Amino acid sequence: MSSIMLNEDCNHFIHTRHVAGIQVGINELCSFIDQYANTDVKDLLFNVNAMLAFFPSKSRENAIDKYLRLLKAGKDMDISGTAVKTAYDIFVKQNLDMYKIWIERSRYNGISPWISIRMNDIHNNQDEGHFLLSSFFEENKHMRRVTHRPNSNYFDNALDYTFPEVQEHYLSLIKEVVERYDFDGLELDWMREVYLFKIGGESEWLKILTNFMRIVRKILDQAEKERGHKIKICVRVPYSPEVALRFGLDVLTWARNGLVDVIVPTARWATTDNNMPIDFWKQILDGTGAIVAAGIEILLEATRANPKYNAFNSLETARGSAYTYLNMGADKIYLFNYMDQPSLLSHSLEFNSAVDKRNYHELLITICDLETASKLPRRNVVTYHDIAAPGLRNGDLLPLCCSSPNSNGSMIFKNIRIETGPINKNLKRSLVLGIDSKRELDSSDFDVYWNTNKCKLVGIITLSAPKPNCKTYKFKIECSEKSQEAFPSASIIEIASKNIPFSVEWAEILINYQGC
User: Fold this and answer.
1) Residue pair 170/119 in contact by the 8 Å Cβ criterion
2) So what's the pLDDT on residue 516?
3) Structure confidence at residue 344 (pLDDT)
């Protein structure tokens, strides 16, 4: 059976406990880790920084010192600053090293502890004077990746790794956490943010990051000798090997040279990516010793065109993603932003989502057991790639515009691919299409096929979240092949209009799901 790697970001714990009014002491710190005991979470990755470090760092500006400095100056604190009061209370007033306690408690519970470092975090970079902005960032505008023109998007302000000072800024933090904490692995999170070089130089400067990775590996090699145990390296990277390379991340070279142990292809943030080529990753990494953990985000969105859903993954959609990727060969499932919620409804999007405290434990014990997950309700939703290297375009599946038949009456079929993993034929299954049209459609308006089998329109249904705003049409899926025990692991949907044009804005396959 596979297992879960779970990322805990640098301010989630202190923020949620602060908002919930929870006094954090040694018991709360330990119980936070204990909730993951006897689940499929076998690796906990503790992120320690954004621009600021969130422990009393000496190598870079940290949130606690900045909070005290601003407080002393009589400056008002926004929510970021006041939540840091909890970190101050933990680290300074109580003299408890939160991460050290978590590392020890993780091992006590049979969970491998990691430290995660965000390699180019630029949260709130366009909000001048924001608490989360570091002095290094504010004082070194010439080291940002876009200086040749006015800024036009969020990523223009990311730091440029061609500057040795930027590399050293992160190497010094890595050296500090290695000296301070005894962990099993170090994660370099290149997805916060993956825009690492001046525009147009990404391919030219591949060697810069490969050399950086070699330096990190040497630091850990020395630490291994001192600690007497292996220290692994994990990297979070874009969804495909090609896109990673176009950003300047030569992941295959890293793997071939023993510089990484775990590779996490993933979306950035806007949506879980349900179309990552995990099977291709596995093929090209064969023989390197590196394993693949498929990254699943908490958000789920069908299309970048006029997004209007902004929904969290449900238990069923998260299970669908994990089941698919495990069947494609993923060694582990990596959950990002799937952090606990101590209060029931701290955010409206969390209600009945995968991280709703009423669903959280079930999520952590069911999504990595293929035999269990194969029998439970799951949803496989078409999403999109939420990140593209400079100069590349994403071929998003949706929205899919279906035109009226051409002048000679021939219908124009369009295709949608939905990865599902194998579907046992004894389970209920349905196809659901969210369609935007001038009027409500019926079976005389379109033809729909699933893997060459014609689908029968059942009617309009109402989905539970996540769901689109347009009408959702359910189709019965049948297969004429009686010899197979399971449906193929990928579905090709063909759809054409018989009459008026319409747009497909949502597509998914429901498996063993209520109402399917």
Assistant:
1) yes
2) 67
3) 54
- Output the furthest CA–CA distance in the chain (Å, rounded): 79
Phi-psi region of 20 (alpha: psi -120 to 50; beta: other; left: phi over 0): alpha
Report yes or no: 103 and 182 within 8 Å, Cβ to Cβ.
yes
The residues, ordered by sequence, that sit 6+ positions from 139 with a Cβ below 8 Å of its Cβ are none
Rounded Cα distance, 469 and 475, in Å:
18
CA–CA gap between residue 238 and residue 387 (Å, rounded): 8
Kindly give, in sequence order, each residue whose CB lies less than 8 Å from that of residue 63, ignoring residues fewer than 6 positions away. 11, 52, 53, 54, 84, 87, 131
Look at residue 83 and give its three-state secondary structure. helix
Question: pLDDT tens digits for 434-446?
Answer: 999 999 999 999 9
Can you say whether the dihedral through the CA atoms of 110, 111, 112, 114 is positive or negative?
negative
Query: Three-state DSSP class for 137?
Result: helix
More confident residue, 21 or 265: 265
Compute the distance between CA of residue 291 and CA of residue 389 in angstroms, rounded to an integer.
24
Q: How far is CA 374 from CA 5, 99, 295, 481, in A?
A: 21, 36, 20, 20
Is residue 111 within 8 Å of residue 42, measured between CB atoms?
A: yes
Q: Find residue 12's DSSP bridge partners.
A: none
Q: How far is 381 from 313, CA to CA, in rounded Å?
A: 10
403: phi then psi, degrees, rounded to nearest 5: -85, 160
Distances (CA, A) of 120 to 387, 408, 488: 16, 55, 40
Which residue's structure tokens are 């906990």?
A: 44
Residue 501: asked if its preceding bond is cis (omega within 30°), the reply is no
Terminal Cα distance for the chain, rounded: 28
* Band of residue 202 on the pLDDT scale cut at 50, 70, 90: confident
Distance (Å, rounded) from C-alpha 387 to C-alpha 291? 23
State how far the Cα of 233 lies from the Cα of 330, in Å rounded to an integer. 17
Please give the Cα distance from 187 to 220 (Å, whole number). Answer: 12
